[in-house]
Amino acid sequence: MTADTRDAVRRIVETAIENQPRSQQQTIGPSEIGIPCDRCLGHKLAGTPQHRDVAWLPYIGTAVHALFEQVFMAESLAADAAGRMSRWCPETKLHVGEIDGEPILGSCDLFDVEAGVVVDFKIVGKTTLTTARIGPSEQYRVQAHLYGRGWQLYGHQVNDVAIWYLPRNATTLDAGIWWSEPYDETVATAALTRADALARGIRLAGADVVLPQLARTPGCWDCPRFPAYPTDSPLPTRGGEPFADLVGRSA
What we know:
Layout: H1 3-19, H2 21-24, H3 30-33, H4 38-46, H5 56-81, E1 88-99, E2 102-112, E3 117-124, H6 126-132, H7 138-153, E4 160-167, E5 177-182, H8 185-205, H9 207-210, H10 241-247
Parallel strand pairs: 3-4
Antiparallel strand pairs: 1-2, 2-3, 4-5
Helix pairs in contact: 4-8, 7-8
């Protein structure tokens, strides 16, 4: 019987997933600042623990990102060896602004110095690929512009921000979608201003006072992971593969 081996292997893998830096992150980052749901943004700013399963699908994305970092780092090293200036800056830690006096840091997937383009990789399923054809979610869009602001603060000219949606389940990159638009600092600063106001309110009045007053966005996939309050109305029934694809785990 291999049950013991199976259980040991799974335990090791799940522990690795739960202990990776992305899973351990406690402070809010650029990927979360654009969350449209006020309640969930408030919870993240307050540091409320989330109830969630082992994040297998996000871990797949993390693994692909790590490989891409190696690919573009190799490109940069090859350019250096040939005496050329590399156009690629992969996986770079950036300061994008402050929220309630605290610096907000994030790791940008890729920056094309030559063209002034921020690139964010998203490893997604079929449903997200379908919705990406009409444009990114506001959360993804804000994240891209926050990275643009980070590169701008770092002293670089930023012209455009881009998201490359990569198919998690397809057999070819042809199924991917490339979205881009001109960099707009006001997208980043507006999101920071919103989060800053919430964070200050939570600090001054207390999370237990502020959070119950914040509206929950219908269809928000983060809401069920946070505590509910007695005055909350029931959330719409979720389920089905489309929802599972958006949350990055089985429904």
